[in-house]
Inverse folding.
C-alpha cells in the first residue's frame, strides 16, 4: 500500500517535501525568517487554513525552546500533522446485520462514479457481495458509465427511467439488496440539479427512503472530493455536509495534483474522517487512507535532509 501511496503523492511531495528540505537545512538555528518560509511552503502545498495554526504551533514550541534548530522542526511537524488526521483511515462502518448502505455524493466531475466502481471492487475483494443503484438519473452518461463498470465487475445494478425519481431507484435497490441478501448497497446520487436547493432536497429524500427500508441506513454517507481542486473542495464539502450528514471523505485524483495537502484543511473544516484516497484511473487504484503512510510519503524528501 505504501508504494502506491508514495507513487501517487509524487507531485505533492515535490512541493511540500522538497520545499521543507530547502527551508529546514539540518543543524541551522531556527529563526523568524525560517518560520516565515515554512509557512509559505505549507500554503504552497495547499494546506490552506491548516497552515497558519501549524506554524503557530511551531512558533510556540520555538519560544518555549522545545525546538531550537531547523532539524527539530520536521519530527515536530510530523506529529502535528498526524494529530490532525486522528480518526482517519478506519474504513467503512458495516451494519451489524442486513445490507450495509453506502450513500455516495459529490459534484459532477469529482470522480464520483469511478470511485463507486472502485469501492465495489474493494468490497468484493474483501468477500462482500455488492449491488449498485444508479441514482444519478438526471445524467444519462453517469448511468451508462456505472452500468459499464457493473458489467465489468460482475455486480448487479438497479436503474430507473432517464430523468426519473432517484429516490425510487434507491427504494428499488434497497428492496433488491434485502431480497437477495446482499452485503453492501452503494447508491450513486446526482452531482447537480437545476438549483443547489433542489439537489440537497433530493439527497435528503433519498436518505429518508433508505432509512425507511433498511434499519440505520445509510450507514455511511461518503463525499467524493476532487483533490485537484485543493482548497476549493472545502466549500463544496460544507454544502453537502449540511444537507446529508457526511460521515466520511473519499479524496479522488490524489495522484494528479500537487495539492494533496488540502486533506488537512478538509479534515479540519469538516471534522469527518478521510476513508479512502484515489491514486489512479485503474479499478484497483483506491486505497484505504493511512495517516502515517500519508504523512511519511509527503515529508520523505525533507526527512532525507
Amino acid at each position: 500500500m505504501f508504494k502506491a501511496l508514495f507513487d501517487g503523492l509524487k507531485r505533492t511531495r515535490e512541493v511540500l517535501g522538497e520545499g521543507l528540505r530547502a527551508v529546514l537545512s539540518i543543524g541551522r538555528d531556527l529563526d523568524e525568517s525560517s518560520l516565515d518560509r515554512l509557512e509559505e511552503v505549507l500554503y504552497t502545498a495547499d494546506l490552506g487554513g491548516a497552515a497558519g495554526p501549524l506554524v503557530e504551533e511551531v512558533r510556540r514550541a520555538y519560544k518555549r525552546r522545545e525546538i531550537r534548530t531547523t532539524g527539530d522542526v520536521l519530527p515536530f511537524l510530523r506529529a502535528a500533522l498526524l494529530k490532525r488526521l486522528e480518526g482517519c483511515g478506519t474504513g467503512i462502518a458495516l451494519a451489524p446485520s442486513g445490507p450495509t448502505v453506502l450513500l455516495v455524493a459529490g459534484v459532477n466531475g469529482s470522480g464520483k462514479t469511478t470511485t463507486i466502481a472502485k469501492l465495489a471492487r474493494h468490497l468484493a475483494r474483501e468477500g462482500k457481495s455488492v449491488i449498485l443503484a444508479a441514482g444519478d438519473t438526471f445524467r444519462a452518461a453517469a448511468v451508462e458509465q456505472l452500468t459499464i463498470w457493473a458489467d465489468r465487475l460482475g455486480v448487479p445494478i438497479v436503474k430507473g427511467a432517464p430523468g426519473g425519481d432517484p429516490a425510487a431507484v434507491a427504494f428499488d435497490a434497497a428492496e433488491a439488496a434485502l431480497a437477495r441478501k446482499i452485503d453492501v448497497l452503494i447508491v450513486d446520487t446526482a452531482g447537480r440539479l437545476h438549483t443547489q436547493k433542489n439537489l440537497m432536497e433530493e439527497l435528503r429524500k433519498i436518505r429518508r427512503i433508505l432509512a425507511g427500508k433498511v434499519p440505520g441506513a445509510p450507514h455511511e454517507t461518503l463525499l467524493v472530493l476532487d483533490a485537484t481542486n485543493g482548497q476549493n473542495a472545502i466549500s463544496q464539502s460544507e454544502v453537502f455536509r449540511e444537507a446529508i450528514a457526511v460521515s466520511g471523505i473519499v479524496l479522488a485524483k490524489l495522484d494528479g495534483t500537487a495539492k494533496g495537502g488540502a486533506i488537512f484543511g478538509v479534515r479540519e473544516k469538516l471534522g469527518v474522517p478521510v476513508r479512502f484516497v484515489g491514486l489512479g484511473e485503474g479499478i484497483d487504484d483506491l486505497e484505504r487512507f493511512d495517516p502515517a503512510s500519508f504523512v511519511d510519503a509527503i515529508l520523505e524528501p525533507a526527512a532525507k535532509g
